[in-house]
Write a sequence for this structure.
């Protein structure tokens, strides 16, 4: 059942003993939302905890405080934040499949697995929704005037006050990480407006920005350097072929965490419209990521090699060496260009 | 003479034929402010132009429109935006030394060289000041209530409306470039609030963000890769020594534009507190940039080698090879650490 933000607030005011779930491989949005909602509910006098998530990295350690649920906590209400489907539950949330009472989310693809869902698909971060929800929960709101005397929308403006800092900081984490610090296309006027309101509370955004946007690991920077050393450009520099071999990974002592989202790296190269990142996964097996910014349909290109995805971000697997993979993807790109 | 924003608006409403100056090696803030102010003045029916700046790079070509002053334009009033001193004038502005009628700036170090100066040293970007100024210029403002009936501040809230898109876009350029797209420490609640208001006008911030924050040149990325290949870490990884040799520059066909602000690059390395970037400028001569984030005073370190600067960003020149420069700066760092 889809419910409004007002009804979401009424629901949360009514019960007690909340357990809040975050999604698999949790990011700053799901973690920030869970912590802010947990602390907000506690300010209403409720018991509330965030379910520990086995995928949470050390990067988020500074934010948890005392929000993590102790073992054996039995919730009266289970709330999922920023989780589009039960398939995205972390291992720790498996027992709560089919038992989520309320889901608050911003993914248009949300599968409606919860008893109640409040979805705002136009928001860059779920944190924007939690911000508005906490306003309703924590600050006394005027009664909407009774119909038919006036249009409620015209006369009834919700009260907006500054949140406490302990709620504002995780929400800033949520907004900033989901927008690459306000640089991604999903950033909206609402994102900036709320970021301003959160900063007004006096929180230390410097530390958050430094930790999440201005720091890279040594290995990550070496990997990026290696990619540039071996990058191939085609078609007047509009196509970039980047490769990471097993030897590179071994030489640089790199793990999966060091190549996370590495497919986005060659796309920042000036003039590149199609960025292909090839990873040698095993001898004779390469995984390819294709990112395009204009014209070319990445999904069609990858489909020719047995893969697929979105028009601007797709992937496929090629049997063969890195050189084989390069030849195969170039041929596939040319074929799709020829059709276009 | 220091003047208020209100008096700045009154001054600009009074005269005509404005020429707007930008600073040497112009950035998005000075350029964005000049263009927005120029177009704002034209909306008041004034003639206004921006003085061409020989240092403006192609990166800013999309923004100028028809704002650049034709040769022979004789202004009745010269306005400088985002220029702290006459020493920062571009070559083209040399004839206007001692002739600036109005300066609008956010640098606390502003030298007061103009006949009238409106300075707000707490703003991240000069664009924030121009935004507020354009509100006063373009939208009818209520009269402040007469003293002593009420405190003007309490009752008189200036009107804030959405600017036209052609003014909003250069102001977004100003705010975003001066804050690294809202990631630098100077970003304030006001920066975010105004960014939201500018985005509300429907401008295409995606293109601005892509151009200025999500694009790097091939040579720049190769230089960064080379730095990582040769990076030295000292003192448990808290000190990074990066070097760019003449050979690197030649091999990668790099020019000055490719190493602009390169001193900031090694500082993003996880765990690094002191980042030293060494550039071999000529055989036997190295220029060093020292950036520190905690504890160590970079200015003291560089002073030991005949240089200086700020506590967190300083520089010096060392006679000798890159190896000599590394040894010298490490010794200087250790000496300052020993004193501390």
């Amino acid at each position: 059942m889809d419910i409004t933000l007002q009804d979401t607030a009424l629901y949360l005011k009514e019960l007690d003993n909340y357990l809040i779930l975050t999604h698999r491989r949790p990011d700053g949005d799901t973690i920030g939302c869970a912590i802010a909602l947990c602390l907000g509910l506690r300010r209403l006098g409720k018991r509330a905890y965030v379910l520990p998530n086995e995928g949470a990295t050390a990067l988020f350690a500074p934010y948890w405080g005392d929000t993590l649920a102790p073992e054996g906590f039995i919730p009266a209400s289970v709330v999922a934040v920023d989780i589009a489907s039960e398939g995205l539950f972390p291992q720790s949330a498996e027992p709560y499949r089919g038992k989520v009472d309320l889901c608050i989310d911003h993914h248009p693809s949300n599968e409606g697995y919860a008893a109640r869902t409040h979805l705002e698909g136009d928001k860059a971060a779920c944190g924007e929704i939690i911000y508005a929800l906490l306003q309703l929960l924590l600050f006394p709101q005027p009664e909407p005037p009774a119909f038919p005397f006036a249009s409620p929308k015209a006369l009834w403006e919700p009260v907006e006050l500054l949140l406490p800092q302990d709620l504002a900081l995780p929400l800033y984490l949520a907004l900033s990480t989901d927008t690459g610090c306000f640089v991604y296309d999903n950033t909206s006027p609402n994102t900036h407006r709320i970021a301003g309101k959160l900063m007004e509370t006096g929180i230390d955004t410097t530390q958050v920005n430094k930790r999440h946007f201005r720091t890279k690991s040594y290995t990550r920077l070496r990997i990026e350097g290696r990619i540039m050393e071996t990058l191939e450009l085609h078609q007047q520099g509009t196509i970039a072929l980047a490769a990471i071999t097993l030897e590179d990974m071994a030489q640089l002592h790199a793990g999966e965490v060091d190549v996370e989202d590495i497919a986005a790296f060659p796309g920042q190269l000036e003039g590149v419209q199609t960025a292909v990142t090839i990873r040698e996964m095993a001898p004779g097996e390469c995984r390819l990521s294709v990112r395009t910014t204009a014209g070319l349909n990445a999904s069609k290109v990858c489909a020719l090699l047995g893969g697929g995805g979105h028009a601007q971000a797709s992937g496929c697997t090629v049997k063969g060496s890195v050189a084989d993979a390069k030849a195969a993807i170039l041929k596939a790109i040319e074929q799709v260009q020829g059709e276009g």
